[in-house]
User: Fold this.
Amino acid sequence: MRIGIYPGTFDPITLGHIDVIKKSLKLVDKVIVATTYNINKEYFFTIDERIEIIKKSLFNDLKLNKKKIEIISFDTLTINLCKKYKAKIIIRGLRAVSDFEYEFQLAGMNKKLSNEIETVFLMSDIENQIISSNFVKEIAKLGGKVDNFLTKSAVKTLKRKINE
Assistant:
């Protein structure tokens, strides 16, 4: 079984992330969507909230196959996570050229840590390439409409969190 790990903060998961997940399912038998928790970073949503948003977005809103997607949290090196789950592929999404330099360096470091694990870069569909979780949160906080960037349940959760 080919397993891929798609690591990220997913704070919150966007339609761009979801495009990458759908495309990764064409390359692997199972994708593990791994949302990271780093104590040195500030998040809008807690780790449990992010996992719940991902589950609702993928399984309730989009009815994606639960047997092919696993959602987890992690606070370790992605390479160690790959070894734990016997994944040979790290999936990374690219939006623009500006993402490439960082992602290229990250892939190189991961390759140095484990020569057995490959990084695959996928781009979301053109209409979703500009979506950024940070921009989505900012638009929502300022009262803008974010329905074109998130699933219905993610929009609902984001609005509820902003109004707390």
Notes: The CA atoms of residues 55 and 71 lie 7 Å apart.
